[in-house]
Amino acid sequence: MKIFIHFLILLFLLSGSRSADDSSPFAVVLGIAQDGGAPHAGCVKTCCSDRWSHSENELRVSCLGIVDPQTEEVWIIDATPDFPEQYHELTQNGKYKLKGIFLTHAHIGHYTGLIHLGREVMGTKEIPVYAMPRMKSFLETNGPWNQLVSLSQISLIPLTDNKIIKLNDRLSLTSFTVPHRDEYSETVGFKLKGENNKLIFIPDIDKWEKWGTNIIDIIHQNEFVLIDGTFFGQNEIPNRNMSEIPHPFIEESLSQFSNLSMKNKSKVFFIHLNHSNPVLDLKSEQRLKVINSGFNISFRGIKFTL
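and the corresponding structure tokens:
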């Protein structure tokens, strides 16, 4: 009964299935995996072995597309190692025009896809790339990224913390800094606002208590909340000090969010899932625990009407 109620609430939040003539803007998940994807390079364990043998089970790296069908404009948050496929899917083989790329931070799963804009591949002309000051400086002062700048293949546009950027008459985007391992750049999440709904996207963050913002308030204030679910719990990666990669474990989030109403729980979608994360197994106890608790696991292709 709990799963059924959760399913009905989720359908309501997603505003039902989108009809072919629906011109409302929307966000679409283009990938759900952590930076290394799944299967993960060098992994021969059960979590990846089937994915190596069956390409249809491969998971693309965490990425969010923004689409306005009315104006045929699209934007993408993060340029991942799977950029060619995600660009093709988002633009519908060039039908829609890419108006800009927004970067969260300088870890490899979030910006290295920019290389495909270079003269060896697409040879683009002044594609707007939005980045925070340190991220912008990183691209300007390190090769091969600075060649994209010097050849005017990308046009770097500075992001400012909590400043609203108007995408068009129906959509706006706001970046906000979050705590993370900021070796080369700041890390940001994004708030996407449409005509009817608001969506939060935080693929990478350290423990919730390190952030000066209350994540519970964020869930209450927005219709869709896509958040860091990199690891399910402690000891997920043997022989690795998990304190060096202090993402909020999914089991910690489930506990922290346990007092939310079913409607508010249904707003939460875990994303940026490491290949080792047991919730990627559709039959795992951990995945069932997430769903039975009223929350969601993101999947490629899910759309959120804005």
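(Above: one complete record from the training split.) DSSP finds ten helices and 14 strands in the chain.
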